[in-house]
Please model this.
Amino acid sequence: MHPRVFSVLHTLWMEHGQPKEGTVFLNYFGKPFANRSEGSGGGNPLLRPHNVACKAAGIKDFTPHSWRHHWASWMVMSGCDLFTLMRLGGWSNLSMVQRYAAVSSDHMKEAILRLS
Model:
């Protein structure tokens, strides 16, 4: 876990009295997100809050699954090798890593310009 993520989560844990169990992420009302995968509702419990946040930010065509692609791409562009990314992302082969980890044209241009 990245130290900044740990710091934020640790602070939340401390603010909530260091609970031994319970939900980490809460909705606007301070309640756990509903698990819509159980029963007839189905689906991702974070879909609605994700969509509300994207709408407020003016972001279109970005799904919760898009975060996985975004993360993998940024990992590669920050210098992470594909084998490490494969392990971190839970992919079983490099072809799946390559499918997820697309790099920007600016990143490719910078890679070329680093050649001397």
